[in-house]
Design brief:
This protein is mostly helical. It is 57% helix and 5% strand. The N terminus is likely disordered.
Length: 1074
């Protein structure tokens, strides 16, 4: 090679023909200081093991002691708004501290799927895949590869960490064939696991998307007025069997292939059992046993909500609310316009409305103000309800609603639905009737498509039409063609505007009946074009091109279109209003406790003292008309290029997804299907057109490059190898020459603990916020799950180019050259790129210590620390001294109580990106340094247990995307295997195993590409959309248009709360991007 002579001079190669030393240890020969402070010294590893084990043990001990006394460790057990509660935990004896272990290990996958969703199950299976993949690799590596590497003894007398890596193997050694065979065995095992897991995922996802859950009672009752429908009451089967439906769903896809599996060999059946997503057996047998032994126990919450139901041989009597009751209410939208609540009788029952305490009227009298002053009662608001409150009604035996008594309201175990934030299963589904006549809930998104980049969405068009005509257009979209046309006809002058087909367009009279031939059709088109009717049609306020296209294509299945409006100004005002409401509630609470009216300054910190309650009331009263005016203006002037198209059948929606409206310019009028679920729409991204999305994408590229290439890992990995160079240059006697315990511990902390700690802090604190802002600012991710997946992509780029590649090169740079030599080394490789495999081949064994210490920290310290601080509410409680001392102790306002126990949502993008980094490290070093894989198994096992605990007891999903992160995760694991083959071949090149390296590269790369193509073609592409055969079996349904109206624009702000538009709830993330 042209640069071999210069490279040999740089690296002092001990054997001819090689440009670099196999280990930096050789550069320390003859230097006593270097030998004593060798960067590969095992002391740094021992120090990291000791320090991280001590910290991790203390964290686990703290978790065991604090968990029984802090609600923040098991919020799903205590919060009344949880629909599906976890199993209760023991409160006495050792079970008080260790009772959580049994549910974590024994809870079925069916329960995880039913309570937390398919996205949560995918997260759990991702960590299970890590354990299943790495455990055989760790056993094989420690039993075969590690003894071979330590027995070679290429570096005589070496007792450093390098001895357990491939750096200890002599060049041209036949031992490299064992590493070559091991690499292909590891690849085959990875492919086998991914094949079976993806097959299970595909089967579960297709059944899951079909729906089939219990009827959506919240939409029946709570949304009946808003949707313009009536409360349905019908008979249903025993609800205890419905509770087991998800377990049945999981078992069904196993039974479909039971006969085929029975004919397979034992290893095939074992693999299917190992990778099964069905968990434990269904609970039908337990349900039948419960019905036979204790019929009264099957009186579940759904029965109470349903009201008019029947049982087989089971009698029912009226009773008071119990822990199984779900509390619901029906807001009376008409009462909001009348300014009062809708009562239904003097006995406190409400047949279709709500009590005045949750009505939509604003306080407008001195009597209302006095009631608020004295009792702190909520009079409600036309702007929004108090999102931190629960509904205080329960369904009686006759299906009507009644107020909870004071005794019932005081019971925390009574299930109550959040007023503004019900469960995802309620917001995501709508009711339908299946082929057997049973009511069931189906996913609303399967009946909808999303149209973006619509040509007609220009701000001035609706404004030119005038406020009344614009309102008619909005009613046309939300209420359907009939109501919309009626509204257009009711507009002054509307009689002549609807002559051209009833779309607000004036034109010549058209011939009666459909055209008889193509020539007649084009003649009519030419007639309207010459008269200007087609030009006027584009600016008509009651005409929708989207509705016209899809109603013509699907005349029997098209339902309506729902336009998307820009609500940002409304939401910003509602956030100010919300803060004022919280301050007012606190002031009223203090008035009730102390009997003294609080006072404050007229301005921030100056001005005369005034009554705080009156001041806040005045500010709220001034904000509410502004919010209502902005809400009306958004519906008139806030038209965006995006529309939701609703159908009556899943078949029509699936076919509409393939519509190619503008074949010559497919960037315009894009049809995206299925549409995001109502709970996971990323509304901000729907406001942009195609040009804006392209521009924002280019503007965010520098930010992505900055985050990915910021040399954080380069510097921290260099610290772990800096001792020898630092002591050779500075010769600090206290640090470099001191050989007692203090000196060794200090050097061990600097090289063994500090680098990993700095990387972990950056990765856990700063990186999530930066990645979140970049992904949201791109403006092209139309759902919250898509934003999470994009964050996972950026995290994975950071894993490869920042953490892994910079970590490898940083350790190698300090190990082989410093100062001017480092610059010369970089210049030499730039001039001779053929030397890159040599550099990487030397850098990997040299950097393995840094990554080994990093995985030690992630396993022994980070996992226990996450158990101790399960969510931000834990350390916030610590800052309040655990509410044991004044002023935190004692009663607090309801809003403060809610915020102290605010339940968080999983950060899927961060979690998958973080786990993929450990996966990348373990796979890349599985051949080079097998000890790393042992710690990797511990990491994935610990995180599996951690997330099982979190999903069962502590977290609540923000959205449900049907597990779309599994294809992302599986494909990134294959990228990790690609990097493993590439880097392992580089080390073989350094060891002069050219044949093994060539065969590994050729066979490994071809195998990975072929398997990835097969996996995507057979499974991933099949799960992207609902198969037409399954769509044809789905029942017909009607998606209420209000399901796809953003909360700030809903009547009374229904569904609004400060975190409604964020991907992660209560993590302090901004509501809008740049």
């Amino acid at each position: 090679m042209a640069g071999n002579d210069s490279m040999a001079g740089l690296y002092h190669s001990p054997y001819p023909g090689m440009g670099m030393s196999p280990s930096p240890v050789l550069d320390c020969k003859g230097n006593s200081t270097c030998e004593k402070t060798n960067p590969d010294s095992i002391n740094g590893v021992f120090t990291a093991l000791t320090v991280n084990a001590i910290i991790g043990g203390a964290c686990l001990l703290g978790f065991l002691l604090l968990r029984p006394i802090m609600k923040q460790y098991s919020l799903r057990l205590h919060l009344p708004s949880i629909t599906i509660r976890p199993p209760p935990l023991p409160t006495k004896g050792l079970g008080k501290y260790f009772g959580w272990i049994k549910p974590v290990l024994t809870t079925s996958d069916g329960f995880i799927l039913r309570s937390a969703g398919l996205d949560a199950l995918v997260l759990q299976k991702g960590y299970a895949l890590g354990v299943q993949m790495l455990l055989p690799m760790a056993i094989f590596g420690c039993c075969l590869l590690l003894p071979l590497q330590t027995s070679e003894a290429f570096i005589v007398g070496d007792a450093s960490y390098s001895r357990v890596t491939m750096a200890n193997i002599r060049p041209n050694s036949t031992i490299m064939w064992a590493h070559w065979v091991s690499c292909f065995l590891f690849l085959g095992w990875t492919f086998l696991l991914l094949e079976y897991h993806t097959r299970q995922y595909a089967a579960v996802r297709q059944h899951y998307l079909r729906g089939g859950d219990d009827p959506n009672y919240w939409r029946d009752l709570h949304m009946s007025e808003a949707d313009g429908t009536h409360v349905h009451r019908s008979a249903k089967l025993l609800d205890v069997l419905g509770a087991a439906r998800y377990d049945s769903l999981l078992d069904e896809q196993e039974e479909m292939l039971r006969e085929t599996v029975g004919r397979r060999r034992w290893w095939n059946r074992w693999m299917r059992s190992l990778t099964s997503w069905t968990g434990q057996e269904g609970v039908e047998a337990a349900a039948r046993h419960t019905v036979a032994t204790d019929p009264s126990h099957i009186d579940l919450a759904h029965d109470v909500i349903q009201g008019d139901f029947h049982r087989d041989a089971v009698s029912f009597k009226s009773r008071t609310a119990t822990s199984d009751d779900v509390v619901l209410t029906v807001p009376d939208a008409q009462s909001a316009t009348r300014g009062g609540g809708a009562g239904a009788g003097g006995d406190g029952r409400a047949g279709g409305g709500a009590d005045s305490s949750v009505s939509a009227s604003r306080f407008n009298s001195e009597e209302d103000a006095a009631r608020r002053d004295e009792k702190g009662e909520d009079i409600g608001s036309l702007v929004a309800f108090k999102w931190w409150s629960h509904v205080d009604h329960v369904a009686a035996a006759d299906g009507k609603l009644r107020r909870l008594t004071e005794e019932e309201s005081a019971v925390d175990t009574v299930k109550k639905v959040m007023l503004a934030k019900p469960s995802v299963r309620y917001r995501k589904t709508v009711n339908a009737v299946d082929r057997h006549g049973h009511r069931t809930a189906v996913n609303a998104q399967q009946y909808a498509v999303l149209v973006t980049n619509h040509l007609r969405a220009r701000r001035g068009q609706v404004r030119r039409a005038g406020p009344r005509r614009a309102a008619a257009a909005v009613r046309y979209e939300l209420e359907g063609p009939t109501a919309g046309h009626a509204a257009a006809e009711a507009t002054p002058g509307g009689g002549k505007d609807v002559e051209a087909g009833g779309h607000g367009v004036t034109g010549p009279p058209s011939p009666r009946g459909p055209p008889r031939s193509g020539a007649e059709l084009w003649a009519r088109v030419r007639l309207h074009r010459e008269s200007g009717a087609l030009r006027a049609l584009g600016v008509s306020s009651s005409y929708s091109m989207v509705a016209s296209i899809f109603s013509a294509l699907f005349p029997h299945d098209f339902d309506r279109v729902v336009p998307v409006f820009n609500y940002r100004r409304v939401d910003l005002l509602m956030r100010v209003w919300d803060r004022k409401q919280g301050q007012l509630e606190h002031a009223l609470f203090m008035l009730e406790r102390t009997g003294k009216r609080p006072v404050c300054n007229t301005s921030c910190c100056k001005g005369p003292k005034v009554d705080k309650i009156n001041k806040l009331r005045a500010e709220i009263a001034a904000l509410e008309p502004r919010i209502l005016a902005e809400r009306a203006a958004a519906l008139q002037y806030g038209m965006t290029p995006s529309w939701f198209v609703l159908f009556r059948s899943q078949t029509a929606a699936a076919i509409a997804a393939s519509c190619n409206i503008l074949p010559m310019n497919q960037d315009l009028f894009q049809v995206r299907a299925p549409a995001p679920g109502p709970e996971e729409v990323n509304w901000e991204s729907l406001w942009f057109n195609h040009g804006q999305r392209v521009l924002r994408g280019w503007l965010t590229v520098p930010a992505v490059v900055f985050v990915v290439l910021l040399p954080v890992s380069l510097l921290t990995s260099a610290i772990s190898s800096l001792n020898s160079q630092f002591c050779a240059a500075v010769n600090w006697e206290f640090y470099c020459r001191r050989q007692d315990f203090v000196g060794k511990a200090l050097r061990g902390l600097v090289t063994g603990f500090l680098p990993s700690l700095l990387v972990t802090l950056w990765q856990g604190l700063a990186l999530p916020r930066l990645v979140y802002m970049i992904a949201q600012s791109e403006g092209r991710h139309l759902s919250l799950s898509a934003v999470d997946r994009r964050m996972g992509e950026i995290y994975f780029l950071w894993d490869i180019f920042n953490m892994f590649l910079q970590g490898v090169l940083g350790s190698a740079a300090v190990s082989t050259a410093t100062g001017a030599n480092a610059f010369m080394q970089t210049k030499t490789f730039a001039e001779n790129p053929q030397e890159v495999p040599n550099l990487l081949g030397q850098a990997l064994p040299a950097s393995s210590k840094f990554f080994f210490i990093y995985v030690i920290m992630r396993t022994l310290m980070t996992v226990p620390l996450r158990f101790l601080i399960t969510q931000p509410g834990v350390w916030q409680c610590w800052l309040r001294l655990m509410d044991m001392f004044p002023p935190c102790r004692g009663p607090v306002p309801p809003r403060t109580t809610y915020m102290r126990h605010a339940i968080r949502s999983p950060r899927y993008g961060v979690e998958f990106g973080s786990s993929l980094l450990v996966m990348l490290i373990c796979l890349s070093f599985s051949i080079i340094a097998p000890l790393i894989v042992v710690l990797g198994v511990g990491f994935f096992a610990g995180m599996w247990a951690f997330w099982r605990y979190q999903l069962i007891f502590n977290y609540q999903r923000k959205y449900e995307a049907g597990g779309l992160l599994w294809p992302f995760y599986a494909n990134r694991v294959l990228v990790c295997t690609f990097i493993t083959v590439a880097f392992t071949g580089c080390v073989m090149i350094v060891k002069r195993a050219f044949v093994q390296a060539s065969l590994l590269w050729v066979g490994g790369f071809i195998g990975i590409i072929a398997f990835r193509t097969r996996l995507n073609r057979r499974y991933m592409n099949a799960i992207a959309e609902m198969p037409l055969m399954l769509a044809a079996l789905a029942p017909r349904a009607r998606v209420p248009p209000t399901a796809y109206v953003p909360p700030p624009l809903q009547a009374n702000g229904l569904g609004w709360y400060p975190e409604f538009n964020k991907v992660w709830e209560w993590f302090g993330m901004p509501g809008y991007s740049y």
